[in-house]
Amino acid sequence: MIGYLYTDVPSWVMGRAEQMERNDTTMIYPWINAILPLGESSPGKQRWLQHLKTRYPNAEAAAKVWGMPVSPTYGISWKELAR
């Protein structure tokens, strides 16, 4: 045997075939697809938003990186990302 690999965590990125089967609003990261539908006050959603706030200067920058829709007229706020 040359090597052995075992993982007990879900895949961090969807495979290309699975991406092709989904619509345009599905993230390629399965764990984000589990967080997005959570309520805005849920601990998971709040922690993810805290993480985004430390990495991006504003909600619009975070939304663009993560492929979320941003209104060309009104932009997007952190509160809207929580929804």
- Radius of gyration (Å): 16 Å
Range of strand content: under 5%
Distance between the termini: 49 Å
Count helical runs: 5
Number of strands: 0
The ordered H/E elements are HHHHH
- Based on secondary structure, the structural category is mainly alpha
The total domain count is 1
Overall morphology: elongated
Let me know the average pLDDT: 81
Largest sheet: none
Helix content: 40-55%
What are the low-pLDDT stretches, counting only 5+ consecutive residues below 50?
A: none
Give structural attributes.
0% strand, 5 helices, 83 residues, mainly alpha
What would you say this structure looks like, in words?
- The protein is elongated.
- It has 83 residues and is mainly α.
- Helix content is 45%, strand content 0%.
- It has one domain (16-82).
- It contains 5 helices and no strands.
- The N and C termini lie far apart (49 Å).
Tell me the layout of helices and strands.
Layout: H1 16-21, H2 30-35, H3 43-55, H4 59-65, H5 78-82
Quick recap of the structure?
This protein is an all-alpha fold and 83 residues long. Helix content is 45%, strand content 0%.
